[in-house]
Amino acid sequence: MKRKKNFISIGCVLWSVAVLAIVMLLVYFFQFGGNLSNDHRRWGEFGSYFASVTGLLAFLGVIYTSYKTDNRVGESEERNQMRDDRDMFFRMLDLYRQNRDTFKLNYISFLSDYEHFIGLKGFKKCVQLMEKNVCTDIILDVFLHKLKVCDFEKFDVLVKSIFSQVNTYRDFKVDNNGDPEENREIVRRCLDTYKNAITFSIEGNLTIEQYQQVLLYTTKEEQYKAVRRAMDLVYESNKSGLGAYLRTIYYLLNLIRSFDERETLVKIFRAQLSREELVLLFFNAVSSKSNRDVIHLMVDNDMFNNLNLEDLYFVSGSTKDEKIKNIFSLFDEEQI
């Protein structure tokens, strides 16, 4: 913490003392006639009086010297504290970089064997998985399941648009001229049978424009729950690496809360974060592992300033701030 500084100028002190001394001398001369005397006793009296003036000057000099010494000591302590703060910050920054660079994501795909993604490639794959999880959740568990309460014809064109490149769509065998209730039952059965295949086909086939159409039929609450579940799924299968990485960021931001150079140090840290890491931090802030303090740390330190609007395509809103607000406003009340 910064030591409160006294801005008393040395010039002000000297001028004040000089004026006081002159006033005391004028009072003396006025009191005793104002003329120089040849009487030794009068000179003795003057010496005693002037000694009181010089004594006052000496006393003020001691006080000022003590103040300057204390001020120099305080400034030295402040510099040492700032140096210690910086040293601690950069040690934590090195730990963050180490956790980031050594992070390993283990992934099993449908088309290949066990795959490993190291460092920033691992975070990029995490974000891809979370985004796919959100899309899958919204489309399969929210949008398409609404067919049981909505008129199927209203969704038919959109469903065909979304799954135009999905081979399993032909298995829906929906008759546009048939009974809507029967069509809905066919869709529900196919969803249960081909859910894994449809989920896999969404990746790489679903465009952002098509997904935005789906969002029109969903609520903010449904989007929030989808984002929360998406992060929880990825975290559970990679909790060791992700846990160490996310905890380091939390401890780093919490550490510099009271630092004098907090704003500068936060800017240094934000400059280290990649595009994928920012999206990951957004997901984590909404996850079941998050809490009120985590969200406040993210928001108070402007961690999402550099998030791109297109990186939040999976939630509704016309601006980045609106998208973030829509999701954060729905965080569990008992935690906020």
Description of the molecule:
With 336 residues, this protein is mostly helical. It has 2 domains: 10-82; 103-336, no CATH class. It is built from 12 helices and 2 strands. It has helices spanning 10-31, 40-102, 120-143, 152-162, 180-202, 208-215, 220-237, 239-255, 262-270, 275-286, 292-300, 320-328, and strands at residues 104-108, 114-118. It has a two-stranded antiparallel sheet with strand order 1-2. Strand 1 and strand 2 form a beta hairpin. The longest helix has 63 residues, at 40-102. The protein is elongated. The two termini are 29 Å apart. Residues 1-7 and 165-172 have low confidence and may be disordered.
Domain count, please report it.
2
Main sheet summary: 2 strands, antiparallel
> What best-fitting shape do the alpha-carbon axes yield?
elongated
Class inferred from helices and paired strands: mainly alpha
User: Distance between termini?
Assistant: 29 Å
Number of helical regions: 12
> What's the assembly state of these chains?
single chain
Protein name: Phage abortive infection protein
Transmembrane segments: 7-29, 49-67
Organism: Barnesiella intestinihominis YIT 11860
Keywords: Membrane, Transmembrane, Transmembrane helix
